[in-house]
Structure formats: structure tokens, C-alpha cells
Amino acid sequence: MTRRPRKEMIAETRAKLIGAARAAFGTVGYAETSMDELTATAGLTRGALYHHFGDKKGLLAAVIAEIDAEMNERLRIVSDRATDPWAGFRDECTAYIEMALEPEIQRVVLRDGPAVLGDPWTWPTQSACILSMTDSLGRLREAGVILAVDAEAAARLIAGATLHAAQWIAHAPDAPQASRKAIEAFDAMLDGLLVRG
Fold first, then answer.
1. Domain of residue 41, residue span
2. Domains of the chain: total
3. pLDDT in tens, 20-67
4. Which Pfam family name is an example for this entry (predicted)?
């Protein structure tokens, strides 16, 4: 019997821990998740968790990174389906706000994430989002679709608006109503960037 490569075994262990954590964090939340139960569900030890993620907080960061990667892929698909670059940008931003209605994203990314990991602006995923948005806005500005504004400044303002809208929705007593209001206001805000005439 051949022995599996170490790299493959590490990836499998990490995937098991992230999968178990994602299920637990998404249903009972970060604070209520027992590390003993989580590792038992994964068929691993607490030592494996500490070895790969440092602690429960490190595991949460890994779970958020996985969810964020999935969100980004979904947003890319939304943008790619659009009829033009501006519609793609707008649809992608709107889809992000709408994702705040999804229970796993609400609990893990928008509630527990900031409570445990701190300000989302310090997360590595936020930097990647700003860079991508800056690039998109720069291309839209060069094409004459939006006003001649600084692309990074606009990206940071738009990212802030979408993040705060998503957090508002995640904490709202009537999340669908908050989502509708947020998207309506967000569309009006984005319209202000368009070149008229």
C-alpha cells in the first residue's frame, strides 16, 4: 500500500476541520461551538486544530476565507452575465448586499466575524475586494461611463456602503425589508457616479 503524500493529508485534515467548523459556526454560532464536539465530528483531535489553525479564532478566519472565496466566485458569475461593464459592476454590488439575507453569511461573516476577528476592514479579503473594485471603477472611468473621480476613493466608499448595508441587513428585525431599502438607496447612490448625456 502506497503512502499518501503529506501535502494531501494536510489538505484533507484542514478541509475536515473547516467543514466541521463551518457547519457548527453556521448553525449554533462561534461562541456556542465546542471545540471537543467540533473535532470529534471531524474525526480529529484538538491537537490537529491547534496545529493547523492555532486556535478557534484562527479556524473562524479560515472558515470566513472559504465562504468569502465562494461569495467572490458567485459575484464574478453575476458580473459576467451582465450586458455591459456598468451593469456588471452594479449587479455585483447588489448581489453582495442580497447575500446578507443568507443565514450562513449573516451569522458567520457579518455577525461572528466582526465580533471575534475585529473590524472587517483589517481582513485580508477586504484588501482584495478594494483592489478589484478600484480596477473595475478605473476601467469604467477610462471608458467614460462614470465621472472622473479617483477610482480607489470611490471603491472604498462603495465597499463601505455595501459592507455596512450587509451588516444592517444581518442584524435587522426584518432583513428582507432592510435589503430592499438598502438596494434602492444604493442604486440611487451609484447613479450619481454616471456621466450624464
1. 1-54
2. 2
3. 999 999 999 999 999 999 999 999 989 999 999 999 999 999 999 999
4. TetR_N
